[in-house]
């Protein structure tokens, strides 16, 4: 079974981002970039499926600038077999990315596509669901467990009240939540081997996909700061303040 | 301008987040219609018709919509939604699951988790885990939007008298089925609806120690939450997680116990009216957002707190 994994290059999760002075966006100059953490979980899940003998080939795809090749090489070092970069320097919306991924799905015909549930930059939480809609496939979003059996996949999902399990016909789309697995680190020999694995570069034009958008970001601002309050000396003082000053208990 | 709001429900009751979503729709302006999709949801539709400000309730009552599988519900919403200026759903796990599928079927970009309405086509939403706020404009014929409930004060659940209309269309894609669910049981209020939330972090040391928080919460009538660190350490289940990757809460009072205050946690609770932090590390970042900070050993402070309220 062929598995396609989509990954995104984003600002590293340890970086505290700053809004640009002209409010045009977030300052990403000289900032450490990494693979989106939810995408790391997606890669790990695919690699585990291959180790179990369920997956036969893992193709990793990214939509983004040419520098996203770094994240694709990381995925190759973690165990993906080959990579595809759909190169675009533009800031694409989730729908545009989903359309490009749909074109790759048409070309590659995977049985399972695994994506992160959301990217930690735009926080959209849309691409997997949109890809599922465009492909006409079932979707198992926010997955905490994925089990393939025959021509279907059982996905346990993290939902507001607890967990829900659905069964989807293959091919299907899965998006990962935090507790699905704990991603491994790439070993040095695997990093060296990854440099020789195939990496194909495509363009939206070559795939015949329009990336026009109905959304426009007008400005990006820093959030309103919350000012620090006071330190109380004892529990008694705290309870007194909550009762008589804040009047919340 | 007419707005379609997708009712959030569990098959038994209309969830409070629906009221916040209707409030966002009211801010946009125009008539508000509510869609209740599910199986055996007649009584729910009657309840939805009482929501203040709702003009019409559409009921899609069909076995295909039980458990609200997105493969079946999204085509219904996309078909009905074509006649509307906006489609809104709460940014719950259900809303997040279904609405992007609707947007893709309508070939429009979605705007996720809005926290304010600037005008009928312009909205604010947090990005980078709440470290930046983007103002986004949509020129889509049908604007597809999820609403962060804490950004909008709920409308009244009673007082309206909307008409109720059955929708015949049944979409069964036949590619997905419900297997089962395991819902956490609790007598305490639901996290996102509670007026007071008591949350524990890594400082709780283990799951058993959360009993101190439960005791305090029961005295206060509060819900109990946890930081991502406490969840990842296996102290408590994930549905208790407050933060960017968990639940977003904005209660009247938020009590953070043994929580350092990582950015991802702050993103989930910083809109609370009053924040209390109890932590033995006086350098903990949580104190920078707390209205009242107490530097103390939580294992001494929490039992004392419980006795005094």
From TrEMBL, chain A:
Gene3D superfamilies: HUPs (3.40.50.620). Keywords: Electron transport, Transport. It comes from the Bacteria. The electron transfer flavoprotein serves as a specific electron acceptor for other dehydrogenases. It transfers the electrons to the main respiratory chain via ETF-ubiquinone oxidoreductase (ETF dehydrogenase). Belongs to the ETF beta-subunit/FixA family. Pfam families: ETF. It comes from Pseudomonas fluorescens. This is Electron transfer flavoprotein subunit beta. InterPro entries: ET-Flavoprotein_bsu_CS (IPR000049), ETF_a/b_N (IPR014730), ETF_b (IPR012255), ETF_beta_N (IPR033948), Rossmann-like_a/b/a_fold (IPR014729). GO terms for biological process: carboxylic acid catabolic process. Its cofactor is AMP. Transmembrane segments: none annotated. The keyword Transport applies. The keyword Electron transport applies. The gene is etfB_2. Heterodimer of an alpha and a beta subunit.
Automatic annotation (TrEMBL), chain B:
Its cofactor is FAD. CDD domains: ETF_alpha. InterPro entries: DHS-like_NAD/FAD-binding_dom, ETF_a/b_N, ETF_a/FixB, ETF_alpha_N, ETF_asu_C, ETF_asu_C_CS, Rossmann-like_a/b/a_fold. The keyword Hydrolase does not apply. Binds 1 FAD per dimer. Belongs to the ETF alpha-subunit/FixB family. This is Electron transfer flavoprotein subunit alpha. It comes from Pseudomonas fluorescens. The gene is etfA_3.
């Amino acid at each position: 079974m062929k598995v396609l994994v989509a990954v995104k290059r984003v600002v590293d999760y340890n970086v505290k981002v700053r809004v640009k002075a002209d409010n045009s966006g977030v300052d990403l100059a000289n900032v450490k970039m990494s693979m989106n953490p939810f995408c790391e979980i997606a890669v790990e899940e695919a690699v585990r499926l291959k180790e179990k003998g369920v997956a036969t080939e893992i193709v990793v795809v990214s939509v983004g600038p040419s520098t996203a090749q770094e994240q694709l090489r990381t995925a190759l070092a973690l165990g993906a077999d080959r990579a595809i970069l759909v190169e675009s320097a533009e800031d694409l919306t989730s729908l545009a990315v989903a359309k490009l991924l749909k074109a790759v799905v048409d070309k590659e015909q995977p049985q399972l596509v695994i994506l992160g549930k959301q990217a930690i930059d735009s926080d959209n939480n849309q691409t997997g669901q949109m890809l599922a809609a465009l492909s006409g496939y079932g979707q198992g979003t926010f997955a905490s467990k994925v089990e393939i059996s025959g021509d279907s996949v059982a996905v346990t999902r993290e939902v507001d009240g607890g967990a829900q399990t659905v069964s989807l016909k293959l091919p299907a789309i899965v998006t990962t939540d935090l507790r699905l697995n704990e991603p491994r680190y790439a070993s040095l020999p695997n990093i060296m081997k990854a440099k020789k694995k195939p990496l194909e570069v495509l363009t939206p034009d070559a795939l015949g996909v329009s990336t026009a958008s109905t959304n426009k970001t007008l400005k990006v601002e820093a959030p309103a700061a919350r000012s620090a309050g006071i330190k109380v000396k004892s529990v008694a003082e705290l309870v007194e303040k909550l009762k008589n000053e804040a009047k919340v208990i | 301008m007419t707005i379609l709001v997708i009712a959030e429900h569990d098959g038994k009751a209309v969830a409070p987040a629906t009221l916040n979503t209707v409030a966002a729709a009211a801010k946009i302006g125009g008539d508000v219609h509510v869609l209740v999709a599910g199986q055996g949801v007649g009584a729910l539709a009657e309840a939805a018709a009482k929501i203040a400000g709702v003009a019409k309730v559409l009921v899609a009552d069909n076995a295909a919509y039980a458990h609200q599988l997105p493969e079946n519900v999204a085509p219904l919403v996309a078909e009905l939604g074509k006649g509307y200026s906006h489609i809104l759903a709460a940014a719950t796990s259900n809303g997040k699951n279904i609405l992007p599928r609707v947007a893709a079927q309508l070939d429009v970009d979605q705007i996720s988790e809005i926290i304010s309405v600037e005008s009928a086509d312009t909205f604010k939403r947090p990005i980078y885990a709440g470290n930046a706020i983007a103002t986004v404009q949509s020129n889509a014929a049908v604007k597809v939007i999820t609403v962060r409930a804490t950004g909008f004060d709920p409308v009244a659940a009673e007082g309206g008298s909307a008409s109720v209309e059955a929708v015949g269309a049944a979409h069964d894609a036949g590619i997905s089925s419900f297997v089962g669910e395991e819902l956490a049981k609790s007598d305490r209020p639901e996290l996102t609806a509670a007026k007071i939330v008591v949350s524990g972090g890594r400082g709780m040391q283990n799951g058993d120690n959360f009993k101190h928080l439960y005791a305090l919460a029961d005295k206060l009538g509060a819900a109990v939450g946890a930081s991502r660190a406490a969840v990842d350490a296996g102290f408590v289940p994930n549905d208790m997680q407050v933060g960017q990757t968990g639940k977003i809460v904005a209660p009247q009072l938020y009590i953070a116990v043994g929580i350092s205050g990582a950015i991802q946690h702050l993103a989930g609770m910083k809109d609370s009216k009053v924040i209390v932090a109890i932590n033995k590390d006086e350098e903990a970042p949580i104190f920078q957002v707390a209205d009242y900070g107490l530097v103390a050993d939580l294992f001494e402070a929490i039992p004392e707190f419980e006795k005094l309220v």
